[in-house]
Structures are given as C-alpha cells and as structure tokens.
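Changelog-adjacent note: as of this version, every example in the card shows the full chain rather than a window. The one below runs 185 residues end to end.
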Amino acid sequence: YVITEAEKLGYHIDEMAISGGSAGGCLALLYAYRDAETSPVPVKMVFEAVGPSSFYPEDWKCYGFDAKSSESNNAARMLFGTMAGKEIKEEFGTPGYNEEIKDISALLWINENSVPTILAYGKYDKVQPYEASQRLLEALENNNVPHEYYLFEHSGHGLQNDNKVYGEYMRKILEYLDTYMPIDI
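Full-length structure tokens:
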C-alpha cells in the first residue's frame, strides 16, 4: 500500500534503510535481520541506537537479573515475557529458551546474509544494558556482517554525554548510506 501510494505522489521506492531508537531500534533490527529477504522493499542497511536485541539475565545486571536466584529468574521471566507477549517457561540459555524469545531477539536472527549495521549504545544505560549489546556485536562479527559499533562511554540510554562520538556515529551513517544506498544522478 505504501509503495503504491508513494508512486501516486511521484516517489519511486525500490530500497530502504531502516532505523530506530530504543524499542524502535529493537523493531528495526528485527525487521532488518528477520524480514529483509522477504520485504516488499529491499532492506539495504540498518542503523539504530540503544535497541534491546538480547535477553539473557546475566546481561541485565542493572536489573539484578544476574543474581541467579529464583527471585531474580522470576523477575527476568516476567520482564522478558512481557516484552515477548508470552509466558517464558524454558530454562535460560537453552535452545528452547532461545526459541521462546526469538520473536523479540534480533541477535537470534543474524546470519552471514544480514544487512550492514550501525549500532550505538551507552555504557551506563539502565534501560537497555550495555552488556546485552555485546552479544549482538559478537554475532555480527562471527557472521562477518559489515558493521560499526559506537560505545558512548559516558552516556546512558539517551546517549547524552558523548557529543564527539555522536558526531562520528552520524558521519558513519552518511558514509553507509553513500556506500549501500548510493543516489544515482
């Protein structure tokens, strides 16, 4: 529908970059890794900031989920289950758990055909923990996906305290757009 309506307005859409921040970043990553091959508009790249992509309790230390107690596990199950829209029943770290959480975990969709990616995360983020972004970075590296990862060393979820890094992040987005979605004139 969007493609048809855009054509009526004189805009030809034949490729896209997808982006978002926080929950929108999570959705952008999921679409880019899970749906790029079947998207009605080919996804050429994704760039995002502070989007949750990985849901392992030990990475969510700022929530106290790394305690490995039944109370900690129950709290993690409740939060991740709420995010996934289902009750989490499987044991953390098992293939069954990965299958239960796959609908919301972009990390679990990455493969060697995943689109080029630019990521930004705050080291002091108390909403989407920095540690959870490390699994995403590792999956991109292990699958040889072109990517750039920006760590905002002095920032939280708002990426508010690292202006120089933010400038580098924005310049890299422009560079990736020029590389993966060049404008034909």
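Structural remarks: The longest strand covers residues 43-49.
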